[in-house]
Each structure stands twice: as C-alpha cells, then as structure tokens.
Amino acid sequence: MDILQIAIILVKIVTLTFLVVLPLVPLSVYFERRFSAIIQDRVGPNRVGIPFSLLGFKKDFHLFGLVQPIADGLKLFLKEDFTPAHVRKAFYWMAPALTVVPALITVCVVPFGSPISIFGHTEKLVIADLDIGPLFVFSVASLSVYGITLAGWSSNSKFPFIGGVRSTAQMISYEIALGLSIVPVLMYYGDLNLGTIVKQQADHGWLLLPLWGHDATHTLSSKLLFWFPAAIAFLIFTISIFAETNRMPFDLPECETELVGGYHTEYSSMKFAMFFMGEYAAMVIGSALIITLFLGGWSIGFGLDAVVEKLHIGDFYYGGFIHMGCFMTKLLAFILFFILVRWTVPRFRYDQLMKLGWVVFFEAALINVFLAALIVAAPQLQAAIIGIGSVLLVILTAAVIWVAKVSEEQPKILRA
Amino acid sequence: MPSYLFWLFSVIMLAGGAAVIAFRNPVASALSVVACFVGLAGLFIGLSAFFVGVIQILVYTGAVMVLFLFIIMLLDLKDEEKSAKPLVPIAAGIGLVAAFTMQLIGVLSRSPDTTAPALDAQTFTVAAAGFPASSKIATNLLSGKLPDVHLIGRTLFTQYNLPLQILGVLLLVATIGVVVLSKRQAD
Question: What SS3 string covers chain B?
Fold first, then answer.
C-alpha cells in the first residue's frame, strides 16, 4: 500500500465521517426542534443567525435559525462538567465515548454514491468496500449497547440503572428481529456488499419500487412478487431500527415520565451531549441502512442512473457527486420521517415493547424468510413442490398465530 | 496481514485476557473479555476471514457478553471485590493452564509447518476451477475477491448439512426448555 492510497483513504474518512455524517447530527437536532414546533403549532427556534447588529448594522440575518444548533453545542461545551461524587469514575467517563464511537464506525461501509473517476483513476464513494456490509453494521452497532448499559450502571443511582437495564434488554431483543428481517433481502440479492446491492437496485429497480430495468433474469412479475416479502421486511426493519436507536415511540431507556432522564440523568455538559450525538448518529446510520437496502441508496431511479454515470468534463466523471446528493436528500427525508414519528406516536409501555419484539416481529420475520425463500426459488421448482411449500407456509403461519394467541392468556396468579 | 497489525491485535487480546483475572471488579473483568474478543475479531479479519471476525463480534461481544454484563449488574456482586486468595481455585487454574499449554504444544509440534498459499490470482484461479463456471463463488474468485461468506455457506449447507440441522434442533430444544422452565415458575 503506497502513500497515495493511504492519503485517499484518510481523505475519505475525514470527509465522509466528519464533514458529511457528523454535521447531519446538529442539523437533525435543528429539524427536530423546528418540525416539532410546526406539529405543535409553535414557531420554534428561528432567531439565531449571523449577528450583524453586533458589527453595527441595523438588522441581524436570521437564517431561519439554522445557527441554533451551533449555539446549543457551544452552550453544552461551556456548561460545568459536573461529576457526582457517588459515580464509578472510570466507567462513568468511558460510557459516553462507547455510545458515539460505534455509531461513527458504521459509517465506513455505507456507499454514498456511485464511483467517481478522474484521470482514469476510479474511486468508490465508500470508506471500506467490505463484502459483509450489513453484518458489519449490525456487529459494530451492537457494541453501542455497552455505552448505555455502563452509563446506567456507573451512575450508581436507581433511575439511570433502570434505564440502562431497559436499554440492554430492548436492544438485544430487537437485534434478533433486525437481523432476521433482512435475510429475505440478502437472499434476493445473493450478496452482502452494500455497494453491489445499490448497483443492482440502480440497474433493476429499487426493492420497494421495481418499475424499471426488466430483463430475462429480472422479470417484472418476479420483482412484483418479491415486493410483498420486501415490504414486510421493510416494515419490521424500520420499526426495529426505531427500537435499536432508542427513538420514540420506543425511547423507554430515557422516558422522562418514569425515569427522570433515564441512563443519562447523572450526566452534564459535553458528556451528556455525546449521548445525544450518539443517539442522533445512530439514527442517521439507521436511515442510511434502510435507504441502502430497500430504497435504492444513491440511485436516482427510473433508468436515469446510467445517464448520470456517463456525465463528465474531460476526464472527470462527476456523476458520483450527483448520486451523493440524491443519497443525502433521501437521508434527510428519512430523518424527517423519524422526527415525524417521534412527535406523532405516543410512547409504548415496556411490556408492549417486549411483546411486539418477541411475539410479533420475531415470528413475522421468520415466516417472511420462508415466504421469500419460496418466491426466490419458485422459478426453478416444479408446480407440485411450490404447492406443498405454500401449504406448509400457511400451516406454519396459522401455528405461529395460534401460539401467539395462547401466550396471550393470563398466567395463573402466583401462589405464595 | 501486515505483521504490525498482527502484533497490535495480539497485544489487545492478551492484555484483555490478563485483565480479566487481574481486575477485582466483575464489570471490569467482563469488559476486558470484550476487549479480548475485539482483538480476536481483528485477528480473524486480518486473516481475510471477514465473516468469522464479524460474527465473533456480533455473537460474542454484542450478545453473549452483554447478557453477562447484564446479569453481573443485576446481581450487584460485592463479595468478589474483596481481595481473597483461596489456594484451591488458584491451584486448579494453574493446573488447567498447564494442561492446555501441553495440549497446544502437542498439537503445534505435530502439525506440518507449511505456509498458507498467498491470496494471489493463481490461487484464486485454481480454487475457482472447483466450482461451476457461472456461479457466484467462481466469478468472485476469478475477479480476485475471496467470497468467504458464500464459501462458508456452501460448506455448511452441503458438506455439513446434517450436523447443522442437528445443531439447529439442539438450540430449539434449549429455547423451548427456557420457555417451559419460566412458565412452570408462573404456575
């Protein structure tokens, strides 16, 4: 590996992580505040801008309050960083970092755009082009539970502890639904490389919008048939991402009405801000993963991608940047969706959350795997086998629903 | 894998392993196991076994150790933090380590000292000849990539299909056992 290659990788890490994903965190905080204000018929923070009046001008330039997140960040920096006397110091200091770092590491497998090419040198707009993309994201994201758990435990007081325990149980439960729900998607693509998955969607239609790029192996009917398992997978995956990132309606680890502030009750100043950042960064990465797997990633769609990829000035093929813009647009739209859900849906009860994860999503994802396998394999099978398979699927579904019904029955009262 | 990366991850792993027994606080010990597993995953990934490395983190670090930590925190162990030097466990520990070292030496002295073939174009071409020409594995190998997920999947579902099914049933039995045991308590 020569110096140039290392330099390119470093540039990619710095730009994509610190100049593309990290600024999305304050931006989504701003959106959160403005959007919630609109929903609640308020105005929201719309004043903080460039203070021209400090320089002797008549009017400030308010910029719709876009500078508000910077002011918020500055406030958090300047606040007193108070460490309560009763905490376990080492873990108390470690916990915020353990929440932020995994969320930012997962950025490295997200494909931001199609490859750009300059002077005959092609460069992919992804930091690490791994062949195990989604698994890598899951494995690293599963480490972020340590931050929250440790924060709850090291605070050494009861409400943070309950918050930490809740988040551990919640994240482990929903990881299962999360992992199982994308099995159909991976079966369909037969590939674990996120870049390849997006390329296939650009060529043959997004998973949830398969309306272009038909050919012999990707017929319209087969794609439309796979739309059903894909839609179920999308539903389970999206809702599980809400639970994994501790967002409303599943933000029980920090629910104010029961736990004061949850796992970060004892934190102040920048340490608290890091939990905040970790949560929003996880939301950004979750949205990026949903878009990449189900909604075409950087692809513009409708067969336009091939045209965009050929755009060039001399030797410089800049289509990748247009694709990156498309990806960022989708990402922002999805973040707005996350915020909309937060301010629309009321919070779940903890037993409802666990039931949803273990009784509904786990089983639905399992059945969905069988359904998708049947649909993917159908073209190579005989009609009789397909028939037997679908009958078995119906029996399995009925059995699962019956078991879920039976488990609903109240257990007998515990005798002393 | 460049040798400095090997040393880096080995040191992380060994330091984690040593810290497990050095710390008196059970939570610190559990976190040291996590560090040890992360180092191990790094070694796997360095050996181009991406899938094994990632599964190592996903299963052991992300699930098993989280549950360990969960239990340790819930039990809030206090006795373990006191300094105690019982002779029997220490002797048993040393005995186990000695036995394991002997076994390791035995295995290493008998295994042939050959270097693995380099992951170059020639090795890939030879390996690709063993698979159908248009299959995903063959195309990946011919384009100079190691499709480790596909290879593991193929081996598991063809060569070791029966053991895999038996393992699946075993896990199912364990799951049902948990449900039965927790239901019985409610009665």
Answer: CCHHHHHHHHHHHHHHHHHHHHCCCHHHHHHHHHHHHHHHHHHHHHCCCHHHHHHHHHHHHHHHHHHHHHHHHHHCCCHHHCCCCCHHHHHHHHHHHHHHHHHHHHHHHHCCCCCCCCCCHHHHHHHHCCCCCCCHHHHHHHCCCCCHHHHHHHHHHHHCHHHHHHHHHHHHHHHHHHHHHHHHHHC
Residue A307's pLDDT band, with cuts at 50, 70 and 90, is confident
Q: Pick from A300, A121, A273, A128: which is nearest to A198 by CA?
A: A300
The CA–CA distances, whole Å, from A334 to A44, A105, A175, A292 equal 21, 21, 21, 12
Please give the mean pLDDT across all residues of chain A: 83
A91 interface with B at CB cutoff 8 Å = yes
Spatial CB neighbours of A282, under 8 Å, sequence gap ≥ 6: A103, A141, A144, A244, A245
- Residue B165 binned pLDDT confidence (cut-offs 50, 70, 90): very high
Residues of chain B contacting residue A142, judged by C-beta atoms under 8 Å apart: 57-58, 61-63, 66
ipTM for the whole complex: 0.80
Q: Do A132 and B54 make contact, defined as CB atoms within 8 angstroms?
A: yes
**pLDDT > 60? residue A220:** yes
The C-alpha of B162 sits at a distance from chain A's nearest C-alpha, in angstroms, of 20
Q: How far apart (Å, rounded) are the C-alpha atoms in residues A139 and B34?
A: 13
**Does the beta carbon of A165 lie under 8 angstroms from any beta carbon of chain B?**
yes
Two structure tokens written together for B54: 């990632």
Domains of chain B: 1-77 (1.20.120.1200)
Mean pLDDT of A204-219: 78
d(CA A362, CA A352): 14
DSSP E strand boundaries for A288-412: 312-313, 316-317
Phi, psi of A412 (to 5 degrees): -65, 155
User: Which whole number is the average pLDDT over B166-182?
Assistant: 89
Q: Give the nearest partner residue to B66 out of A153, A168, A414, using CB atoms.
A: A168
Where does the pLDDT of residue B162 fall: very low under 50, low under 70, confident under 90, or very high at 90 and above? Answer: very high
CB A44 within 8 A of CB A21: no
- Here the tokens at position A298 are 């950087």
Residue B104, min C-alpha distance to chain A (Å): 30
Q: What is the mean pLDDT of residues A273-283?
A: 86
For residue A9, the model assigns a pLDDT of 84
Residue A349, pLDDT above cutoff 60: yes
Residue type at B88 in one-letter notation: V
Nearest residue in A to B73, CA atom: A153
Domain limits of chain A?
20-70, 79-350
pTM: 0.86
- Mention every residue, 6+ apart, whose C-beta is less than 8 A from residue B153: none
- Whether the CB of B54 is below 8 Å from some CB of chain A: the reply is yes
Q: Which of A173, A205, A229, A179 is nearest to A378 (CA)?
A: A229
Nearest to A142 among B63, B149, B187 (CB): B63
Q: Provide the pLDDT for residue A416.
A: 53
Among A144, A166, A174, A192, the residue to mutate for chain B (most B Cβ within 10 A): A192
